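$ ./design --mode recover --in tokens.txt
reading tokens...
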């Protein structure tokens, strides 16, 4: 299993950050430019990754003010889990961590690990910018 992580701090309470992340409609604001055909509800999202694949995800698990996990709702090129965790930073703000776990063979890992890391980093950066 390939695990990719990216962490950021947001100067807002855990509850505010969690509530933003818990609604998949908000995740469009976190996506890079190569994501298009976005469609979402609170619990589901589908989109196309330019030159790659169409992906549909849904929230599979929620732990209020702690974590949420999204997994594919349709057959994906490989098993993948998208997890966000939030915790208090001790100063009234939030440490948000985006963890992508993907079941990649060696060939897929060489092709996909870099873009997945860029995606995780982009999303945590956009989260920080969006929730000022």
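writing sequence...
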């Amino acid at each position: 299993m390939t695990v990719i992580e990216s962490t950021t701090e947001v100067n807002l309470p855990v509850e505010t950050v969690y509530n933003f992340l818990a609604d998949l409609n908000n995740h469009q604001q976190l996506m890079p430019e190569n994501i298009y055909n976005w469609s979402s509800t609170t619990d589901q999202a589908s989109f196309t990754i330019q030159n790659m694949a169409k992906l549909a995800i849904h929230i599979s698990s929620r732990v209020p003010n702690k974590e949420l996990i999204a997994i594919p709702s349709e057959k994906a090129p490989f098993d993948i889990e998208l997890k966000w965790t939030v915790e208090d930073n001790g100063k009234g703000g939030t440490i948000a961590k985006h963890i992508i776990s993907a079941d990649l063979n060696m060939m897929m890992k060489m092709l996909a690990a870099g873009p997945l890391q860029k995606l995780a980093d982009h999303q945590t950066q956009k989260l920080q910018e969006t929730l000022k």
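exit 0
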